Amino acid sequence: MDKEEIINKLKNGLIVSCQATPDEPHYMNGITIMMAKCAYWAGAVGIRANTPQDVRSIAKEVPLPIIGLWKIGRGEKEVYLTPDINAARELYNAGAQIIAVQATSHIRDDGKQSYEIIKEIKNEIPEALIFADVRNAEDAKIAAEYGADFIAPTLYGYTSTPQELVKVKHNFGPDLELLASVIKATEKTNSLVIMEGKINTPEQAVMCLYMGAHAVVVGNAITRPHITAKRFVDAINKYR
Q: pLDDT tens for residues 25-73?
């Protein structure tokens, strides 16, 4: 599919984030491929996957657009999500038609702000679509100005501001106010907003689309059963 076909394919649809790490109880070899197959079987319009290896494996089995990202140095570096052009190139070569990048004011190893990766991909991999993971409307505005095709508040809460972290901690559903602000910040640009973060029910997903999101990304509620189970346990414990 070309860029326009991919954009149209994603419209008003569900993108499933298929990720797993060795420290999680459901992890096993090939688990992300099985997740992606289940998402395709259910009617999802796209997949979000981490690392070139997973992107390559999923691309061989599932005929859906893939948003590829590569978390390098998470917990150690300010810019860890597809932090440089080499990581972006490996994702694209593995089969990711859409490359997810960190688009924040955090500083990369080379001293530049992470937003710069958007321009670098546009120059060096013009065939790829760019998915900017941002924290807020300010980030979204800059990412749109830099030319990101898609923008999502995936990194909401990735900040050193204690007040913001408290707000995130107590937010058990998608932040619709945040979604509205990101849409407002990008409405006069060519960037499309995709809602990602704390979408726990189909009703919440529909609400995000109704508010103007081009599509929604859901991960934890679908592909991390221990997180879904914990949500039930926490609610029951509060009832007790």
A: 999 999 999 999 999 999 999 999 999 999 999 999 999 999 999 999 9
Residues whose CB falls within 8 Å of the CB of residue 122, separated by 6 or more in sequence, listed in order:
130, 147
Cα–Cα nearest to 217, from 71, 53, 84, 69: 69
Give the tokens for residue 135.
């924290």
**Among 176, 234, 172, CA closest to 205:** 176
- For 85, residues 6+ apart whose C-beta sits below 8 A from its C-beta are 117, 120, 121, 124, 125
Cβ burial, residue 184 (10 Å; 0-12/13-18/19+):
middle
DSSP string, 135-176: SSHHHHHHHHHHT-SEEE-TTTT-SS-HHHHHHHHT--S--H
What is the signed CA dihedral for 6, 136, 218, 99, rounded to 10 degrees?
A: 40
Write the CA distances from 49 to 21, 87, 144, 165, integer angstroms.
12, 14, 23, 26
C-alpha distances in angstroms, 129 versus 61, 140, 150, 153?
21, 16, 8, 17
Which two three-digit tokens encode residue 48?
């979000």
Point out which residues pair with 49 in neighbouring strands: 68
Reported as a single tens digit per residue, the pLDDT across 10-32 is: 999 999 999 998 889 999 999 99
Query: In the chain, how many domains are there?
Result: 1
How far, CA to CA in Å, does 109 sit from each of 82, 134, 145, 149, 172?
12, 19, 23, 25, 34
Q: What pTM was estimated for this model as a whole? A: 0.93
> What pLDDT sits at residue 240?
84
Residue span of the structural domain in which 45 resides: 3-239
